[in-house]
Recover the amino acids of this structure.
């Protein structure tokens, strides 16, 4: 799950910034998911317990927005839509596709994002504090286990209560 979350204000935005953000966040996820799905199908996923694809979008899709995230958030919206399309097409192969919405995770990437200083409702502290990457991993694990083999096209916010208010 590669991702860029740099900020660029809409009125100052460039097509190059938009294209780079979408290339990493949406196109990259599409390409790797396509190749993984091809390998799963070729290896007989349907007869071997199925397969799992889990995408990481953003709790910003639930309304926790920051100024400067028009390119970022639209790329994550594309990823959420891609999840739905893939879930439909891959169901016949017993491959499930789901989405995690991380929020409030203090990683080097989020803390070092370039652009104007963050502002807007998305900058407040989550109710339960900041998540750690392992918390997001636990959500991914939920979708990845055999017991979740009938869970597809679902969204799970792992955001420490960020989406409550």
């Amino acid at each position: 799950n590669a991702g860029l979350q740099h900020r660029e204000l809409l009125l100052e935005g460039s097509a190059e910034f938009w294209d780079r953000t979408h290339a990493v966040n949406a196109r990259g996820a599409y390409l790797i998911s396509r190749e993984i799905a091809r390998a799963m199908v070729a290896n007989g996923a349907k007869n071997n317990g199925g397969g799992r694809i889990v995408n990481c979008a953003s709790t910003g899709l639930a309304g926790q927005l920051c100024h400067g995230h028009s390119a970022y958030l639209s790329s994550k919206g594309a990823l959420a839509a891609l999840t739905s399309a893939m879930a439909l097409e891959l169901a016949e192969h017993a491959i499930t596709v789901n989405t995690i919405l991380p929020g409030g995770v203090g990683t080097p990437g989020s803390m070092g994002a370039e652009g104007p200083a963050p502002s807007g409702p998305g900058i407040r502290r989550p109710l339960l504090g900041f998540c750690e990457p392992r918390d997001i991993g636990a959500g991914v694990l939920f979708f990845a286990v055999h017991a979740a083999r009938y869970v597809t096209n679902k969204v799970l916010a792992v955001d420490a209560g960020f989406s409550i208010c």
Remarks:
- The longest strand covers residues 95-102.
- The chain has four helices and three strands.
- The two ends are 27 Å apart (CA to CA).
